[in-house]
Amino acid sequence: MITIREAMDTDGHDVAALLGAVFSEYEGCLFAFHEMPELQALAATFRTQAGNFFVAERLLFGRPVVVGCVGFATHGSGLELKKLYVAACERKTGLGGRLLELIESEALQKKASFIELWSDTRFVTAHRFYERRGYRKGTDTRELHDVSRTSEYRFRKDLT
Q1: Which positions ≥6 away from 133 have C-beta within 8 Å?
Q2: Is-above-0.90 flag for pTM?
Q3: CA-to-CA distance for 17 and 27, rounded, in angstroms?
Q4: Across the chain, where does the E strand assignment appear?
Q5: Domain locations in the chain as residue ranges
Q6: Assuming Cys at both sites, which of 21, 51, 88, 138 could form a disulfide with 73, CB separation 3.0 to 4.6 Å?
């Protein structure tokens, strides 16, 4: 059984392990902890952005293991979805959809007019996931100038 809960500041290393595993599935996509300072204090960082961060855990060998995560930050009249990642072993179980629905529910509670997100151009499966759920890929991209030379597409879903 998977439990979804609000993240604590101490969850950063477990989230880093998940992100590292996901990034390793893509050629040239490298995980660098120092490029994500928010992982040092997840809960506090997202609170300063009028947002929240959640982790999904599965009990394995008597220990909870982070198998998914997602967060959001307030962005003008909307929300920016951040770091929706699911471990390979949990994909196609509905966990990604549950995590996305959690953020969409938060957006409705906050009366947000939209949700937007940025997704690495290499994450084609994720793009299809978002598009099936009503997110539109924009024409603009951004370059992160990180160790992976990441280029991202913007996706947006209007809620009003």
Answers
A1: 97, 100, 157
A2: yes
A3: 18
A4: 2-6, 52-60, 63-75, 78-86, 114-120, 136-143, 151-158
A5: 2-158
A6: 51
- Residue 82 has, within 13 A of its CA and on its CB side, a CA count of 21
- Say yes or no: domain 2-158 is CATH 3.20.20.380: no
List the structure tokens of 115. Answer: 């949700």
Q: What is the pLDDT of residues 107-140, one digit of tens each?
A: 999 999 999 999 999 999 999 999 999 999 999 9
User: If we measure between CA atoms, which residue out of 17, 135, 131 comes closest to residue 67?
Assistant: 17
Residues 51-68 have pLDDT tens digits of 999 999 999 999 999 999
Q: Which two tokens stand for residue 130?
A: 């978002």
Q: Which ranges of the chain would DSSP assign to H, the alpha helix?
A: 12-23, 42-48, 95-109, 124-132
The residue behind tokens 């009366």 is 111
Calpha distance 98→71 (Å, rounded): 13
Contact 91, 80 (CB under 8 A): no
